Amino acid sequence: MNCYCGNIKTYTTCCQVFHLNPKKTQTAEQLMRSRYSAFVLADGDYLMATHHSSTRPIKEKKAIVKWAKSVQWIKLEVIETTKGSEKDTEGTVTFNAYFFENGKADTIHEKSAFIKENNQWFYLGLSS
């Protein structure tokens, strides 16, 4: 089975590597894809560990996990990546995340901002 993030690799050889060691993500897009897989798996610990400390919603962790478990994830579509390479310290990823909630299909469309500190990528929040 392909990884939840849409790559043709298996979960074990794709996002699980990052879920076991968040410091292994080399690009902003890898982090964004692994965070999508963490939403599919309702892995709140990974979502918090990869969310930048300045914007990390610790108090909302339980609610985020509860919501992630309550929806049926369909697929991830990466639309555009700006910067965010191994050599960059910041980048953005624009994506659509499709899911079913209460019997209806819905989409999260977001342009996410990422920052690299101490050689590790973090999700910062919505890009302006």
> Which class do the helix and strand fractions yield?
alpha+beta
Percentage of residues assigned to helices = 25-40%
State the CATH topology. Nuclear Transport Factor 2, Chain: A
Instruction: Domain count, please report it.
Output: 1
Could you tell me the strand content as a percent range? Answer: 35-45%
Strand order of the largest sheet: 1-2-3-4
Q: What best-fitting shape do the alpha-carbon axes yield?
A: globular
CATH class: Alpha Beta
Termini separation comes to 36 Å
General description of the model:
The chain has 128 residues and is an alpha+beta fold. The chain has a single domain (15-126), classed as Nuclear Transport Factor 2, Chain: A. Helices cover 27% and strands 35% of the residues. The protein is built from four helices and four strands. The protein has helices at 15-20, 28-40, 44-49, 61-70; strands at residues 72-83, 90-101, 104-117, 120-126. It has a four-stranded antiparallel sheet with strand order 1-2-3-4. Strand 1 (72-83) and strand 2 (90-101) form a beta hairpin. The longest helix is centred in the first third of the chain and has 13 residues, at 28-40. The radius of gyration is 14 Å and the shape is globular. The termini are far apart.
